[in-house]
Amino acid sequence: MIHSRKLESDSPYLTDESKLSGAADMLFIPDDEEDVVKIVVSHNSSKTPLTISAMRTGVCGGCVPKEGDIVSMEKFNKIIGIGKDDKGYFIRTQAAVTVKDLNEIIRKKLYSELQNITDDAIECILSERTDYFYPVDPTELNGSIGGNISTNASGPRTYKYGPTRDWVRRIRIILSDGNVLDILRGEIKAKNRVFSIPVDGKNITVHIPSYEFNRDVKNTTGLMTGPDMDLIDLFIGSEGMFGIITEADIYITEWHPLMSNIIFFPSDDNAYNFVKEFVNSHIDPEFIEFFDTGSLNLIRKSKKNDPKFTKMPDIPDYAGSAIFFDISNDENIVSKYNELSQIAKIYGGSLDHSWCGHELKDRERFFAFRHSVPQTIFEYVASLKGSMPGMHKMGTDMSVPLDHLDEMIDSYSEVLTSKKLEYVIFGHIGNGHLHVEIILKSMDDLSKAKKAYRTLALRSIELGGSPSAEHGIGKIKSEYIELLYGKQGVEDIKKTKRELDPNWIFCPGNVVE
Amino acid sequence: MKYVILVKQVPDTTRIKVDENGNLIRQGVPSILDPYCEYALDMVCRIRKPEDSVIVVSMGPPQAKESIFRCLELGANEAYLLSDKAFAGADVFATSRTLTAFIRKFAADYDLIFCGKQAADGDTAEVPAETAAMLNVQQFCYSENIIISDTIKVTQNYNDEIRVCTVPKGSVLSVSIGDINRRVPSISDHIKALNIEIKTLDRIALGLGMYSVGIKGSKTKIESSYSPRYEHSGKIIDGTDPSEAAKLLIKEVL
Ligand SMILES: Cc1cc2nc3c(=O)[nH]c(=O)nc-3n(C[C@H](O)[C@H](O)[C@H](O)COP(=O)(O)OP(=O)(O)OC[C@H]3O[C@@H](n4cnc5c(N)ncnc54)[C@H](O)[C@@H]3O)c2cc1C
């Protein structure tokens, strides 16, 4: 059954975590794939824009409509089954299952009510001695699998395990004419940058943009490209431009006991320099995350107001920055810690000035501590909306090769300080991918921040990086497509879009105008 | 001073769900050091002097070593696991008898014994008192604060009554509150703990007979155990479509 209603102007469906405000007439909530097809066919025939929405945790306004209607996938929240192929076990899920729910099912092995997608997969996985987990852990666990695929989300562990893309086996997607495309990785490849996609007895020809897609850094700027790329990779990271994902197969992998660690340093510089040696050590961390002085002060302040804020002890007074990382909790841990101690010492750190934890309960606290920085900023920006309705979050999401991180950090400080903007830096330092969040205080700050952001985006490109490493482009960052790929790149993406969605119904405004 | 802390590993009760028959769903629920035991450990670590010794002891299956290890990370310097198949199914009486045997044989020269006020899984809150009775020493349950100078003073909170008492050496204290922000060990603390052996003692080592321990040595016979069920008379209406939901609601109410 299709649930539908008219949208009020203050409906939560008209915004996401970017706090960008949108406009739309109707909200449609389908129960099943048949409903989705009906909604799409009717919108395609009337050429009415249809913005796809899931859990609305996106930070670039991807699910925020400009006009037309919204289709919310929220009822597609069931995990379907388990299968196994040469690459290992995979979970078949509907698109709106959250990362949190997926993790929970795997951790608790709640498989008995699921279907066997391949013969005896459930029996097989239950008889395994090892536990399993889904290694792509975007910090926001309330995001959906469909949203993660559409934005090619990544997280701290991308350092070791890659982004969502690397873990998607299959997707089911409803195209603009209502046809259902079931794409299994490896089945359809491009030839000389052209796909020939069999749909409903015909073949649709789709051209891949001519630009080179940078895979040396974390990158979600625009569509992925490649001369003989897999069709599934065109859809992953396409931000709802080409159709509605209803279902996906997601690989999981063997879990091993982990130790979470936070090591404190006197200053930001100490921590940056420590990381440069850390990545070349034998320690093999699962991820490396950074907190600058400003981020630690933000947590200190929130904790003063609410002692239970992070459920962690107070941050020691001597801490001016911190590095957070997980390592495998195995028989080699002491030798890894010895090596760590040597490196940390050089930069004013010490194993005495650290926290570590291995019980799940503790490790979750470490992650809550990490999440508390962006969370505090999101809440702060939301609190400004009342007095400044046009306000939205301004955080950078730029990656550069690790060798150029110093230069990028210098640019952050030069550009933002010259504009008298207050900011904090935290995030995935191991991937050369730091988030710089600007603490906006006025609308004037917002316009200064936008200009600064453009300068910084150009700088990241100059240094061989990407202006959008994990959050995607959505509606907030579409100008970066031209910055990175030029006018031709924009035209190429538009061409691909027209070939798959001739009436331009899906998510207009996402990625390209 | 020599402190002995009696600790227990329990399932993380914040993650346990109850099925429709009132049975606990324990599958996939991790085990942790009982939070009240951790408060007791915290209290000792705050008052101890560097030369004092802090001994932790736990009766439990081999996996309870993980929780004992956490105690070592957080400051204990000696550890024992009392583990034997025969200990299974022990009630308050058999548990206290086993712990008492350990104290008499391996830590008789202790100064104070600390416990959590109750274990988060069993919730009887009787092991501290029973152990004190068996050792024939005084008990100070629900302790919240301890001050050691020439004398030892403890504040006990019974909710309707607060007592400040002088504690003779040899007493058993149970601790009821602590910092909810669990302490976190440093990496150095972790490495130090890895170098301390957790000694395992079985029934024979404690000098106990088959009929003194576990289910055979227990006086409590459990006929059945279940979580109380609360009947909810409320009804949930799907709110996906508010106008449809409102119609259903009006139908229900009128
Ligand atoms: C505090 C916080 C921390 C975050 N941390 C991270 C992080 O570490 N890494 C990261 O990558 N992101 C992060 N995000 C961003 C966000 O969680 C991700 O972008 C996530 O993938 C969005 O999922 P969603 O279900 O909320 O999608 P939405 O926000 O609802 O939509 C996102 C985009 O996907 C499209 N879409 C959604 N579902 C479908 C579908 N079924 N078919 C086709 N298109 C669809 C939408 O049209 C839109 O363009 C964070 C957000 C917050 C608030």
Widest sheet, order of strands of chain A: 18-15-17-16-20-21-19
Number of strands of chain A: 21
| CATH class value of chain B | Alpha Beta
Could you say what the CATH topology of chain B is called? Answer: Rossmann fold
Q: C-alpha Rg of chain B, in Å?
A: 22 Å
Total domain modules of chain A:
3
Largest sheet of chain B: 9 strands, mixed
Largest interface: A-B, 36 and 28 residues
The CATH architecture of chain B can be named as 3-Layer(aba) Sandwich
| CATH homologous superfamily annotation of chain B | HUPs
Give the termini distance of chain A in whole angstroms.
33 Å
Poorly predicted segments of chain B: none
Terminal-residue CA separation of chain B? 71 Å
The top level CATH class name of the largest domain in chain A: Alpha Beta
> In which range does the helix fraction of chain B lie?
25-40%
* Uncertain spans of chain A: none
Bound molecules: flavin-adenine dinucleotide
> Taking all residues together, what is the mean pLDDT of chain B?
89
CATH topology of the largest domain in chain A: Vanillyl-alcohol Oxidase, Chain A, domain 3
Could you name the CATH homologous superfamily of the largest domain in chain A? FAD-linked oxidase, cap domain/gating helix
Total of DSSP H or I helical runs spanning 4+ residues of chain B: 7
Give a written overview of the molecule.
- The complex is a heterodimer of chains A (513) and B (254).
- By secondary structure, chain A is of the alpha+beta class.
- Chain A has three domains: 2-72, Uridine Diphospho-n-acetylenolpyruvylglucosamine Reductase, domain 2, CATH 3.30.43; 79-254, 2-Layer Sandwich (Uridine Diphospho-n-acetylenolpyruvylglucosamine Reductase, domain 3), CATH 3.30.465; 258-462, Vanillyl-alcohol Oxidase, Chain A, domain 3 (3-Layer(aba) Sandwich).
- Chain A is built from 13 helices and 21 strands.
- Chain B has 254 residues and is α/β, with parallel strands linked by helices.
- Chain B has a single domain (2-253), classed as 3-Layer(aba) Sandwich (Rossmann fold).
- Helices cover 28% and strands 24% of the residues of chain B.
- The longest helix of chain B has 15 residues, at 92-106.
- The structure holds flavin-adenine dinucleotide (FAD).
- Flavin-adenine dinucleotide binds at residues 16-17, 52-59, 62-63, 73, 95, 138-140, 143-144, 146-148, 150-151, 153-155, 239-240, 244-245, 374-375, 378, 470-471, 474, 507, 510 of chain A.
